[in-house]
Amino acid sequence: MDHFQTINPEQAYQHWLEKTAIMVDIRDPQSFNAGHVSGAFHLTNETLNNFLEAADFERPVMVMCYHGHSSQGAAQYLINMGFETVYSVNGGFEVWKKEYPQAVHSQ
Fold first, then answer.
1. How many angstroms separate the CA atoms of 90 and 95, rounded?
2. Does Transferase count among this protein's keywords (predicted)?
3. What is the 3-state secondary structure (H, E, C) of 37-62?
4. pLDDT along the chain (107 residues), means of 10
5. Half-sphere exposure of residue 98, counting CA atoms within 13 Å on the CB side?
6. Residue 65 appears among annotated catalytic residues
7. Overall number of domains in the chain
8. Which residue range forms the structural domain that includes residue 75?
9. How crowded is residue 105: how many other Cβ atoms within 10 Å of its Cβ?
């Protein structure tokens, strides 16, 4: 695959429930610490190398940002880095926390 795909929150939630994809959150540290998808990896410039070193490039990755826009660039970057399947989550964390509050970890 040479391009990321978009995924709606319902599909992302199913992947999350079934543990069939890794969720990464690219929002700023303050937003991530205030609340994020339970089990999400906080993907930043500082954590990127660790993520790539530990990654299974065959396992699907879901990228989440605030509203589903910034995640598209990050998703394409991960495709370019060699991941087979990468999704950008439409609506981002703003939709997720409204639809799936039980799946949000807050500090």
1. 8
2. yes
3. ECCCEECCCCCHHHHHHHCCCCCCEE
4. 92 97 98 97 97 96 97 97 97 97 91
5. 7
6. yes
7. 1
8. 5-105
9. 12
Q: Which two tokens stand for residue 48?
A: 């990127």
Contact between residue 61 and residue 87 where contact means Cβ atoms under 8 Å apart: yes
Catalytic residue among 23, 24, 65, 79: 65
Phi, psi dihedrals of residue 6, rounded to the nearest 5°:
-95, 155
Q: Is the pTM of this model over 0.90?
A: yes
> What is the CATH classification number for the domain harbouring 37?
3.40.250.10
From 53, 65, 70, 54, select the one nearest 92 (Cα to Cα): 65
- Return the closest-CA partner of residue 31 out of 78, 69, 64: 64
